[in-house]
Amino acid sequence: MATLNSNLTDLTIVHKECIKEENHDYLNKNHNYSPINLPYDYSNTNKFTVLHQNIRGITNKIDEFLNSLPSNAPQVICLTEHHVKTEEIANVNLEQYTLGTAFCRQTYKQGGVCIYISKNISFNAFNLDQNIKEKDLEICALKICEASNSFMVICIYRSPTGDFNYFLNQTESILNKTCKTSTHIILCGDFNINYFQENTKKTYFRLPFRILWSL
Questions:
Q1: CA distance 136 to 133
Q2: How does pLDDT run along the chain (215 residues), one tens digit per residue?
Q3: Domain map of the chain by residue range?
Q4: How many CA atoms lie within 13 A of 206 on its CB side?
Q5: What is the CATH number of domain 10-213?
Q6: pTM for the whole thing?
């Protein structure tokens, strides 16, 4: 999700759903969201592509994942459920990208979130450790400053068994804080909320975004 004004000429958000790890069919459902449909120019930093992938374990999928990227490679890659430990995450090399920020589980296995960013882009990582709670809210964020544009990218994972109220309250608190420091906010991840049916979780999750649309 993103809040945009006319200064950001083109933003594309690509969400790739992870289907099943067992049969390696994790790259075959793509969702593309283009608020403004303009020809893509990789050399133009006013045109940004952010890709989200629920990877369900990155260690043995790096080559397959990189090969799946389009020719107009995204400047930002957000990964959920990377399944990597803190001491291992720095060794995950995604070629032309640098690791901008990450969270790795300490108590439970698997999970985790991280954001990779193109090496030629300036950014500042945000410390959200006080909001993190394994399974309930796993989150990382960074602020990107390019030319006249600055915006926040936030990557979130919530386990299906996570405390939904904690997730909702902390997400709202984080959005309140980031709205004060950034005009544009791109929020992506795997929230484990069924958006294909009307339900209470879907309804309550929409409420914090009144903060964004009111700016």
A1: 5
A2: 333 333 444 555 566 554 333 333 333 333 333 333 333 344 444 578 999 999 999 999 999 999 999 888 899 999 999 999 999 999 999 989 999 999 999 999 999 999 999 999 999 999 999 999 999 999 999 999 876 677 899 999 999 999 999 999 999 999 888 887 766 889 999 999 998 888 899 888 887 665 454 44
A3: 10-213
A4: 7
A5: 3.60.10.10
A6: 0.79
